[in-house]
Prior knowledge:
The structure holds two protein chains of two kinds. Chain A is mainly alpha-helical.
Amino acid sequence: MAFQKENFIKFILMVFALSSLFFLFLIFAFILIEGLPLFLKVGLKNIIFGFKWAPTKGSFGIFPMIVSSFLVTFGALVVGGPMGLSCAVYLSEYSGKKMKMLLKPALELLAGIPSVVYGFLGVIYIVPLVRNYLGGSGFSLIATSIILGVMILPTIISISFDALMSVPKSFREGSLAMGATKWQTIYKVVIPSAKSGIMAGFILGMGRAIGETMAVIMIAGNALKIPTSILDPLRTLTGNIALELAYATGDHRLGLFSTGVVLLVIIMILNYMANFGIKKKRLK
Amino acid sequence: MNQMTEKLYILFLFIGIFTVSCGRETSDRKDNQSPITIAGSTSVMPFTEKLAEYFMLDNPDYVIDVQGGGSTAGVQACINRTVDIGMSSRRLKDDEKSLRDITICNDGIAIVVHPGNPLNNLTIDQIRGIFNGRIKNWKELGWIDRKIDAVSREEGSGTRGSFEDLIMNKMEIDDGIMVQDSNGSVKEVVATDPYAMGYISLGLVDERVRGLSVDGVAPTTENIKDGSYKIERPFLFLINGTPDENTQSFIDFVLSKEGQIILKKEGLIDIL
């Protein structure tokens, strides 16, 4: 009796576990079915390396958006990377229990704030700041990078923190016993040993930044051109889909799905890289 | 003990599922009226909502469901018969002519700037130049040496479509122009950025943004009505085939004097 129930529960749990895989498969299939026909019709090169996006007039080039997506992602890393890593190092190496108890929930809260709130704050505060002190319209690469940098902090911190914590204590003790100071130990021993995990955190942060939509639409300005300065507006892949989907029909709609395919491939590569990093760490 | 709690959980789960599914069935059926569904242009939507509110006040047993989605989506939904009425803020294209369009009112498109902007008038050619990327600096229009932060709408938008038809004259809107995805967002950008310029529905112009005269004609309801302000477009209701009784009575209400007065109060141009 008990055994049967055990099995029954196991089966139910397995069904739910597999359903997540099933949804992933559905999403893949759906995006590919909708997105691929246009690649066949217009040509891969004309979409990925095309400079002109005028879907109602038959141009589907999304190269500027690919570049813009990577630019904001890189910008977010420049803003959020050092901050996140410092926070993780502080948390794992220096902070006492009390500080940890304060910082950890705060970070979880930061992760839970909806992106539209970030976007709203960006429009109200960051954009005017950029406009008044740096110039341009304020809807810009730099404003977007700052907001995204803050948004990816929780991801970077929590994964880097785990990586730093998993460095064995004996490494630190060995280094200290050799006469190294605490900072030398962190800099020369702990961070290098946790390198692949920290990289994984950065890459997952990149994935979050490249996939962010709502906040980006609100502060990026969404101009189609490749930005030539950090004060220029830009449009990301996700922004393009969300901006135009409501009105799109026919080929225009397919074009947006093609944008989705490209985005999916980029995210897949990033996740693969992150997993690779984590695995390498475990093998060590 | 453990088994008891487990059983309780399962019981609660079933009760939960049961009540939810029951709730669905009963709550949607207030009466025998099926709701009138309307979808389409986000420019027309707020006004349709207002009209629906007034209509339901007088006829409490009608249910009107108004959704956005954009002009093109409205046309599509109407062709597929997923809605009773489609809304569009642009004229129908040739392949969409199977639908019947009813002009419920006209709307001007105002070229708006920040209230602190000293300019009052632009020519159509200047506006075209700005959005075409030929004129980039306010200095060229006789103001300070500062880049113009022009804001357009996204591809497929009815307002953008009308703007292209009425102003751009087959010229393309430049890639460097910013894009926002609703009248509201464009207005927000223009209201907060002193160097911005955009175009929005005239009905939405208030003290936070200022509408510019075009070729010397101010964007007012009177000037649109007598035809001197040229940048105007119709707000359309679209129907596929013969509408049912409920739908027809709502359309009649919108076209009646009462409905038109409501639209006029909202800053639109009535068709009386």
